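Support request, please re-run this one:
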Amino acid sequence: MNEGKIKEKRQKADAQKRLRHAHSLAVLAIIGVIFLVLPTVSVIGHSGGLVMSKKTATPINIDGIPKEPAWVAAFAQSSPTQDIAVDPRAHGQDWYQIIAGGGGGSNTNKGGLRVSRGQFDGNDDFLVRWATLWDDDYLYFAFNVADDSVHLYKRNYEARDGDIDGIWLLFDTKHDAPKTVFPKHKFETKKVASESTYEADDHYWIFAPLTGRGAGASWSQALDAGADPILNNPANKHVAGRITNTGYTAEIRLPWTVFKPFSGGLLLPGTVIGFDITLTDIDGDPPGKFSAPEGGAVAWSSDFENDNSPGVLGDLTISTELISVGTSVNPTSKLPTTWSRIKNKY
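Re-run finished. Output below.
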């Protein structure tokens, strides 16, 4: 074979190699684009609310007053992002949804936002600031609630009563609800709710933090639910609340073991689960009424279809990060005025 043919053969081989290399790069680029797109889709899957629960090195004392340095740091780092407000647009939250006509309840605020039922007149009427932490034994929640009409719960503790100033915590422990992507601010709650229902890994608890017996009460999911055997026991000290000058505060701790029947095991650090909160507000003469317009309900990441469908929940990350508790944090400058009054009063 002469040198010309050898050279030509080598050139063809080099051209084929370059073609194969270019093809491989194109395939990798396509795969890269797919991987870039997939996280975006999964993040949008639920309603859009995102919260991170950081670990506390010091256990939280459940007395209804979230005063520990870890709570001060958690509120300072998350508020006002995690506020539960009638109009979340005024609180720097860009993942809210507006549904024409509001929620499914009667006499709801026009436009819906996160109001399920009732008529809320603004932040003085009802505003919630909340935070979450965890340690090896518990998942913790703290609430600072502005409420112009607070009622102690003094009725039956064994069967759930809807007329309460109460807190619902809702979970999709396997984070497996159907994912639906919508353009920003166009989340269609009713459409998502029609595509999923509560399954074995989904559950919610209902809490009455302010009670005549001192310790708070808790019921398992459903309107006719009985008392939760672990969380409703006053001796276990899992729920507590205190009335303040402008509303009330509350603390709740959930032992990791209570999730086992739903998640199939312990929820590990780094896990993301579906999550939402609903606050129910009763008004009027004691013992108060939940029915509109006397009372109502506001949710953190949905418009109260959250008790029917895990698809409308937000996302909670059990972070591996330890909460940073610095001595420079000044509660009076970082937290609402109500918080300063609590610190001084107790």
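Residues 24-45, 100-106, 327-346 have pLDDT under 50 and may be disordered. The chain has one domain: 45-345.
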